Please model this.
Amino acid sequence: MKTGKRSVNKRAQKLFVLLLSLVVVMACIQSARANSPADAKPFALNGVYSGDQWLTEEGEENWFILNVPEDGYVEFRIMSYCSGSLSYKLQSSDLSDTYKFTSCSDYISGGSETSPKTGVTGKALSAGNYYFCLSGTTGKYRLMGSFTPYKVNDGAAYSYDNPQQYNLGTGITGAITETDKEDWFKFKTTSYGNFKMTLRAYENSLSYVLYNSDLSVKYWDSSAYGGTSSAPQGKEEKIALKPGTYYIKFSGDQGKYNFNIKVYKIPTCKLSVKAKAGKKYFTIKTTPYADVQVKYGSYKWNRSADAKGKVRIDLPYGKKLKKGKKIKVTATKVDYKKKSGKFKVKK
Model:
């Protein structure tokens, strides 16, 4: 009988130890969960998948916090083993704003225990902390985050009232992000001059407007379309400005851009004439594709230069060039100063 009692006691002790171990394990699992922003887990942006993550109850939330060190693009990859819908959302550090990845619900579904479903999405984000939350179905998933910095130097180009001071000739890299939807720059000109802006847009659509000091006049109001992160869309703008203060605003799709505004010296059309007495024609050398107006005595011609800037003028039938007589030529081309001159026919 004693032996029987000891056997029963041993089984009871083993059961107690097993239950205690289960309680400890469950407590550890519970403590490792991130069911609210207060106990959010760090979200690494190192391009490496996490270990297995679990949602054990319908409606349970798993929260993660990510630190974006500077303006750049954050890519999220979710490998879901869940057959049901695994919803995800990105929120601001104070939880006041939710940043949608699509125009409708953000979720991934259709995985299984043997064949996970992988979803890829991303956002252009400004430097700061953000929360990433997953919820919905039950099951296992893995996460991976990667980060591509834009290496911006746009400073604090927040608004018309708080623009970044821009020095002409300086190259700027800026970014339109989820939390920075407009960039404003302010610059001054001290004398009349011609200015040229070169722009590269790495997003699908980037709008830019050049204003006067109180925004009552728009000088540029245009967009660059079709850029990508690997193949930017280039644009160039030229304008003559008087001394004053000017603002330029950038807005549009998320992504980075580069621009530079420099003083632009307008070139003058080239012009020379080769004319020899007794010949039935003469030649003009000017800027390629320039338009030329020619006058010789009572004769007049309007011509366009070829790709090498050459124009040949043939006199009417039977006529020849006379020594000392003058040929008047004017060359014009868009974005060039016109050039006029009188040339004597040589011996």
In short: Helices lie at 2-32. Residues 111 and 284 are 74 Å apart (CA to CA).
